[in-house]
Amino acid sequence: MSNMCYSPELPSPPAYHPGDRSPTYSSTPRPTERTLRESPRRSRTPPSGVCIKSVGNVTLVLMGQEENTEQPAYRAGAQLTGSILLQHPENTISVVVTIHGLLEMCPLAASYSAIPVVTITNTLYAQRSENSPLCPHSLAFAYDLPSMFRRQRNGEAHPLPPTCHISLDDSPLHYVRCAYGITVTVQSFRHQRFPSFLMKTESVSFDLHYRPHVRPSQPPIPDPSLFATVKRCPEEWAQCGFQVIPMGDSLPVMCDLFTPSVGVFCVAESIPFHLQLSITGGFIHHIHRFFATGRPIRVSILRQIKADTGDRTTKRDIILGEGTLRVLSKGATLNWEGEARCRDPSSVVGSFDCGQTVVVADMLTVEITPPAGCPLRHTTFGHPIKLTTHRWDEAS
Fold it and tell me: Where is this region: Disordered (predicted)?
């Protein structure tokens, strides 16, 4: 880079003076102002509830839980904190904590595979010799839950899958399941005067609900009507085109699906969409048949599950919810608008991808079934979307 200098024969550069003072900024709008968009709070008050379980001499306490919950729940990158209480610590030989997570796949009865996704084992107390200090009544622990796991087959890293149980067909024996838990194992003498071979083992376990908190990167469209918003904010919409193929040699019919461009939606929210079907040429006289039939067009939320056990790959499609359609115009161009929503949001986990092992992907599908006598072929089109556990405005 060359240096820049001024020749003494050239006029000096103009003098600059500071302008008006910068305006004052505030998070609260003035009476003449209004907030156009604001980000949700990124933090929340940590829960202060506890989960407690006792077996014999051992009590396991997990902290940082919601009030009145029976199953401890954690999000990505959370810390498991708690303590182990012993009624008779004087007889204790060892105290071991194990946090485990297992991803299981059973697409067929003869094709089972299991992948450990979390394995944390720590000895909190061990009696090394007769002169070892006695085990205390209370042992505290804190462990960071990893947000990723690594496959041994190829070394690839993937986010931890959420706690789930997904059926791959009508049989309860064919499934994809991911389960997490924490187990405390305490080994002790039955009595200090008894020989060491008269020992007992007590275990306390909790199933852990792992639910990564994921939400859309921006709020939903304030007005879900395409015609009302596409001109003033076209960036809010994504357009995906596909063709409906005719029976003969005629040109295909063009169809456009418009969805919010964010592409990420909470499982508990409706997904707005707009569908446009352009009919030309000899197909115009078939338009009225699309409205005479019951449901010539069906929009659904489709979940695709793929499980690979190494020797077999299984796929299954599940309809999570249906869309409602409203006719907007009839003519050479047909227009519908509507919303699609999951039937049972509480039972739906968010989309996740564990590489070639398990992929749970979602899409908004359009199925066009032309009425009898219409020279158009049955057509199905899918547009990928991502489902999340939380809304945009929910605190993480």
Answer: 1-49
| CATH class for the domain made up of 49-210 | mainly beta
Q: Does domain 226-388 have CATH number 3.90.180.10?
A: no
Tell me the per-residue pLDDT of 108-158, one tens digit each, with 9 for 90 and over. Answer: 766 788 889 999 999 999 987 777 788 999 999 999 999 899 876 667 889
Number of other residues whose CB lies within 10 A of the CB of residue 264: 17
β pairing state of 73-74 and 79-86: unpaired
Alpha helices by DSSP H, listed for 40-198, are none
Are 364 and 271 a contacting pair, CB within 8 Å? Answer: yes
Sequence spans of domains, the chain: 49-210, 226-388
Beta strand pairing call for 138-144 and 358-368: unpaired
Length of the chain: 396
- Assigned token pair, 41: 């709070």
DSSP structural state of residue 250? S
Q: What is the dihedral of CA 196, 199, 204, 210, to 10 degrees?
A: 60
